[in-house]
Write a structure and sequence with these properties.
Blueprint lengths: L5 H4 L2 H6 L4 H6 L4 H23 L7 H17 L4 H23 L7 H6 L7 H9 L7 H24 L1 H7 L7 H10 L9 H31 L9 H26 L1
Helix pairs in contact: 4-5, 4-8, 8-9, 9-12, 11-12, 12-13
């Protein structure tokens, strides 16, 4: 899970609450600040854990991460939500643990592309999911499914965008991602041999030719899917989730297409 801007992640429960009707917003008014604080605690914990797994963090920071994590759990369990919600929460954390283990061991048994992109960050959607659980929505209800799917697509979108920015660094580290895998496949297929440090332009050209079209296509599709899920809550063009989570990536895709066209033409 790449680091996300705190001013973005912190406000996800609040932005999601803006999709609810006025009566529902009144009902969750008291718990919303608590979920905001829990969101902050979880984000801080995940980033410390992530740094540790990447080898960039200090073991001395782990107790602080554990404290943040306990604060998150304490807030959510004190809400006394349905058993179904807590089962869902536990499953998302199991997915996170599995993703961390697979990253450390290098054994990725997960073949689902969305799961690969979201398992390390999906728990950050729990603040929004908890709001619907508090309102009495079941996991199978239309709005609950729409909420779940929206964050699944938007988190996959965010991770894919992050991977596309870090593709070369990940490549040098020996970490295979959906963003750099097309480059690796092209090198193997063409049996190319070059010095990555002295000739990075070769890798960059391969990325532009083989990886960027796939990344742009996937990201555009995820934008469409994410937008379609929010339709369950009515008109959402002005909603902060669209403004902050989706629209920037739509603009980035258009800019990337223009840049790639210039490179290919030249």
């Amino acid at each position: 899970m790449n680091h996300m801007p705190k001013e973005n992640v912190y406000y996800w429960p609040l932005w999601f609450s803006q999709l609810l009707d006025p009566d529902e917003q009144r009902k969750i008014k008291k718990i919303l600040p608590k979920l905001q604080c829990a969101q902050i605690s979880l984000w801080r914990a995940l980033n410390i854990y992530d740094d540790f797994f990447d080898g960039d963090g200090e073991r001395s920071q782990l107790p602080q991460a554990n404290t943040y994590y306990r604060r998150f759990l304490e807030t959510h369990y004190r809400l006394n939500l349905s058993s179904s919600y807590y089962q869902q929460m536990q499953q998302l954390f199991k997915n996170l643990d599995r993703a961390n283990t697979e990253e450390i061991t290098g054994r990725n048994r997960c073949k689902n592309e969305l799961a690969i992109l979201t398992d390390k960050s999906f728990v950050l959607a729990l603040g929004a999911i908890a709001l619907l659980a508090k309102l009495g929505y079941k996991r199978s209800d239309k709005k609950s499914l729409a909420c779940f799917n929206f964050f699944k697509y938007s988190l996959a979108l965010k991770q894919l965008a992050d991977d596309s920015l870090d593709w070369l660094e990940d490549f040098k580290r020996g970490l295979i991602t959906l963003a750099n895998k097309p480059v690796i496949n092209a090198i193997k297929k063409k049996r190319l041999v070059f010095n990555l440090e002295k000739e990075p332009e070769i890798a960059n050209l391969l990325f532009c030719q083989y990886a960027s079209p796939l990344i742009i296509s996937r990201m555009k599709n995820l934008c469409v899917l994410a937008r379609s899920e929010l339709a369950a809550f009515g008109p959402s063009e002005k909603n902060s989730l669209i403004k902050n989570l989706i629209r920037p990536h739509e603009i980035a895709c258009r800019n990337a297409e223009k840049f790639r066209a210039l490179v290919v033409e030249n």
